[in-house]
């Protein structure tokens, strides 16, 4: 683990100690990452054997499990075994909610009920998938698919079964083979192993504990079954921020981090992508997930912008404040601000270099910059308007990656002599001078010109 200053470590530990004491948590563990690597681990309280928890002590991570299941679904998509717009019925016939698409299940926009029918599933032994699907009826759909964000544990039970049917193996075995083993997360399991924390409820008006039950959720397990450690969850935070080609392509992981639904529509501070929770905090766009099960609370965040990350786990049914995670990120940044990497020149293709500089869409000035490699950045000179990065494509065009131009093509159109004439961005014509009369401006240019 990389070293941080003693004063920084003390400030981080103080924040964890305050949370453990004020929230009355039997134990609390946390890890902070910088540039993809853990730089600090802290713990307060004790587990049931009276020992202080370590980075290898297991806690139940609840719904963080969903983010791993979502990665498996995206792997199936990348292999061509399904499309995100496929209705569930195409892969799981006779399912009562088969009209909901896979993308809607991943983003919690399918309109399904939050919980499965029957008793509170988190505190009782689970049922097999056939029993679960047979219990679904017209009450399972609470909203029109696609209408709004509505968190659904049931939806991820169905996605877990989707994975199992395609792989012809239990979802947990697929998680282990396709995610945990490649990433080296050997201490993430479906049931607890020693050493692990015991889950408790803390009495609201007295300092006493009540042990919480723990069962195999069976068909509901993909919604929150996994247990993990600080060491393993730090690896997951790094994956969420930086990715790993052995598990998922960078483009697919970036797709998962795109907002698909908003949990707090008035503020848009918390949203969801495809199986990944999103949080906007002081200029950061964090990707991760929270988790809760009876006796346990957890949260993990990774920052794709700088490789930072944080995670917290506690063995209590309630009490852990979500702000503790972002507070730890803020403390590290306040005490030890990251030092930017030194700028260094990089080789540039001369043909691309001549594309850089001012371009005009009508009378509006834009700047085209060359990024490392062959990618481009187009942004308005005024700072107000449509900005997008463009990734170089094998056919010599560029593909928009974000904002208004996401998915749109940018092409360089040359004159008969081979010189650059204009840029064509999905029918928008960009020229070197405003409304260049020599370019094919849609609608033409007034012959009298500017006056």
UniProtKB/TrEMBL annotation:
<dbReference type="InterPro" id="IPR050491">
    <property type="entry name" value="AmpC-like"/>
</dbReference>
<dbReference type="InterPro" id="IPR001466">
    <property type="entry name" value="Beta-lactam-related"/>
</dbReference>
<feature type="domain" description="DUF7586">
    <location>
        <begin position="349"/>
        <end position="432"/>
    </location>
</feature>
<dbReference type="InterPro" id="IPR012338">
    <property type="entry name" value="Beta-lactam/transpept-like"/>
</dbReference>
<dbReference type="InterPro" id="IPR056008">
    <property type="entry name" value="DUF7586"/>
</dbReference>
<feature type="domain" description="Beta-lactamase-related">
    <location>
        <begin position="20"/>
        <end position="325"/>
    </location>
</feature>
<dbReference type="GO" id="GO:0016787">
    <property type="term" value="F:hydrolase activity"/>
</dbReference>
<dbReference type="Pfam" id="PF24491">
    <property type="entry name" value="DUF7586"/>
</dbReference>
<dbReference type="Pfam" id="PF00144">
    <property type="entry name" value="Beta-lactamase"/>
</dbReference>
<protein>
    <submittedName>
        <fullName>Serine hydrolase domain-containing protein</fullName>
        <ecNumber>3.-.-.-</ecNumber>
    </submittedName>
</protein>
<keyword id="KW-0378">Hydrolase</keyword>
């Amino acid at each position: 683990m990389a070293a941080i200053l003693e004063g920084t470590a003390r400030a981080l530990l103080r924040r964890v100690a305050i949370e453990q004491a004020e929230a009355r948590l039997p134990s609390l563990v946390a890890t902070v990452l910088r540039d993809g690597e853990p730089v600090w681990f802290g713990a307060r309280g004790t587990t049931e054997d009276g020992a202080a928890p370590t980075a290898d002590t297991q806690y139940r991570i609840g719904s963080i499990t969903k983010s791993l299941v979502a990665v498996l679904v995206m792997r199936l998509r990348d292999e061509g075994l399904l499309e995100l717009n496929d209705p569930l019925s195409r892969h799981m016939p006779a399912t009562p909610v088969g009209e909901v698409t896979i993308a809607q299940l991943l983003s919690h926009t399918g309109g399904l009920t939050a919980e499965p029918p029957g008793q509170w599933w988190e505190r009782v032994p689970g049922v097999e998938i056939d029993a679960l699907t047979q219990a679904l009826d017209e009450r399972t759909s609470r909203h029109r698919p696609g209408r709004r964000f509505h968190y659904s544990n049931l939806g991820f039970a169905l996605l877990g079964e989707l994975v199992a049917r395609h792989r012809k193996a239990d979802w947990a075995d697929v998680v282990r083979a396709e995610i945990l083993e490649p990433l080296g997360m050997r201490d993430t399991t479906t049931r607890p192993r020693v050493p692990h924390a015991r889950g408790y409820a803390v009495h609201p008006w007295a300092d006493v504990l009540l042990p919480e039950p723990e069962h195999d959720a069976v068909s509901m397990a993909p919604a929150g079954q996994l247990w993990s450690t600080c060491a393993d969850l730090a690896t997951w935070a790094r994956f969420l921020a930086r990715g790993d080609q052995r598990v998922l392509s960078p483009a697919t992981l970036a797709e998962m981090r795109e907002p698909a639904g908003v949990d707090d529509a008035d503020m848009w501070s918390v949203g969801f992508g495809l199986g990944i929770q999103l949080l906007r905090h002081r200029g950061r766009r964090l990707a991760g997930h929270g988790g809760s099960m009876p006796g346990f609370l957890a949260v993990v965040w990774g920052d794709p912008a700088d490789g930072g990350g944080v995670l917290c786990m506690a063995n209590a049914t309630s009490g852990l404040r979500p702000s503790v995670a972002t507070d730890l990120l803020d403390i590290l940044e306040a005490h030890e601000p990251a030092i930017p990497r030194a700028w260094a020149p990089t080789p540039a293709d001369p043909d691309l270099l001549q594309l850089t500089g001012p371009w005009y869409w009508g009378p509006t000035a834009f700047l085209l910059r060359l990024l490392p490699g062959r990618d481009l950045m187009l942004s308005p000179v005024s700072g107000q308007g449509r900005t997008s990065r463009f990734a170089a494509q094998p056919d010599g065009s560029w593909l928009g990656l974000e904002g208004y131009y996401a998915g749109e093509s940018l092409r360089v159109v040359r004159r008969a002599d081979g010189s650059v004439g204009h840029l064509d961005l999905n029918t928008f014509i960009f020229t070197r001078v405003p409304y260049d009369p020599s370019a094919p401006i849609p609608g033409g240019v007034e012959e009298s010109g500017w006056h």
